[in-house]
Amino acid sequence: MSTPIQKLFDLTGKIALVTGGSRGLGLQMAEALGEAGAKILLTSRKAADLEEATAQLQAKGIDTRWVAADASQPAEIERVVSEAMQRLGHIDILVNNAGATWGAPAEDYPLEAWDKVMNLNIRSIFLMSQAVGKASMIPRRQGRIINVASIAGLGGNTPEMTMVAYNTSKAAVVNFTRTLAGEWGKYNINVNAVAPGMFPSKMTKGTFDRLGADALAAHAPLRRVGDDDDLKGAVVLFASQAGKHITGQTLPIDGGVSAIIAG
Prior knowledge:
The protein has helices spanning 5-8, 24-35, 47-59, 74-88, 111-140, 164-184, 205-211, 213-217, 232-239, 257-262; strands at residues 15-19, 39-44, 64-68, 93-96, 143-148, 189-196, 250-253. The protein is of the alpha/beta class and 263 residues long.
C-alpha cells in the first residue's frame, strides 16, 4: 500500500538547521519546514535579525530557536553544529542558504571580494555539510541536505551583470550537490539544491531598484518574479519522505528563465 500524500510531506518531529535563515529566502524556507511540522534552528550573523525572525515564526506556532554565527568562519560553523546537537539532539535537515554577492567587472574584481564570496557561498556549504554529516547524519544513517544555488550558476553573465565570483560560486554549489549526493547516498542522505531566479531580497534590492520588477518579470515565460511562497513547496519536497528517491538534483525556481537560456 502506498503512503497517504499528507504523511509523505509531514515533517513532524524533524529538526531543521537553516543558515542565513533570519530573512528573505532563508526565512521563507524555514517557515515552510516549520509549517510542515519541523522544529527550526536559525543561524545568521546578526542576533537582532534572528530574534525578529524567531518571533515571527513562533507567532505562527512554529517551534523555533536561533544561534548567531558567521558561517564564513570554520570555528563558528563547528560551534553552531555543537550547539544544535546539545540543544536538539540531532539534525535531520540542513538548509545551506547563507550567501553573499559582490559586483565588479572581472578585470577589476578585487581578490578580497572574490575570497569573501567564495568563502561564504561554497566553502561554508562544504564545511557545514561536513560538520552536520559527521555529527548527526552519517551516524544516524539518514538526513536531507538542501543547498541554495541560483540560476546564475547555470550560465554566464550578461554584460550588464558583473558578478563573476557569485556566478562561479553558485555553479560550484550545483556540482557540489551532485558530488556529495553520490558520495553520501550510502548513508541514506539525500542532497539536492534549489536554484532561485529573481526574488525580491536584500541581495537583489539594487537590481530591482535599477531595473524594476516589471522589467525583470518580462524576462520570464511566466511573466513574474518569485514571491514569498515560491520556494516553500520545493524545500518541503526535498526535506520530506515525498522526496526520498530524489538526490543530486538542482531545481530551478525561476518562472522559466533557465528553460529559455538552456534552449
